[in-house]
Amino acid sequence: MKQFLLLMMFTSCMFGFQNRPVHLFMIGDSTMADKNPKAEPERGWGQALQALFNDTVKISNHAVNGRSSKSFMEEGRWQIVLNSLRTGDYVIIQFGHNDQKPDEARHTDPYTTYKNNLEKYVTDTRAKGAFPILCTSIVRRKFDEKGVLVDTHGEYPDAVRQAAKEFKVPLLDLQLGTKLLVSNLGPEKSKSLYVYALPGAYPNRPDGAQDDTHLNPEGAAAVARLAVEEMKALKLPLMDHLKSADFR
Predict the structure, then answer these.
(1) pTM
(2) Which distant-in-sequence residues (6+ apart) come within 8 Å of 211 by Cβ?
(3) Of 37, 111, 154, 228, which has the fewest CB atoms closer than 10 Å, so is most exposed?
């Protein structure tokens, strides 16, 4: 009887594990993070990603406003994700916007401390039997007087590309993807992707908004689709879990 009960418990655990959805964890900054209604109409692109996958994938978005690859780790946020990781899960890693900030709590150097942090995220993820995915930062909407999009991230995107190549990690080059998207739309039409609002349009923004860093719902959805297109090009197994056949 005792052996039978143990067998039943083991079988039940195995069944539960096999039927557990694939978890896609996301770590990063405000451009990826989930936003509450007080931030309307702001959205992080990670917030729009679940809609593209079926219920065999669960998105766990741990991105937080204002965090860098350094502060996210030092605040213990990475440990929380690590504690939840299981074999076969995925982690999308996108930092850079705040790593370039000058304050000691967040600043990293692109090719040393920043790259070292990315390596730790990758190594820790693999140690759990999960799959890391590196991601370059999305562009800020900044055009010069000639209508040419201006780079604002310096060497950080290139450091991510180097890390992806060196550590043999899939790369979602959203810096390049959003650069093409925003450049093609131009100075005026590209505002449709970001948090631009007239005074009074949103109760939480009585004076309106002109934010060239953060996305609105349309922009978040567009970047989420870019991310999926990148995953498709990489032929990641996650593509078997898409809700729509449009991407396949």
Answers:
(1) 0.90
(2) 42, 194, 195, 196
(3) 37
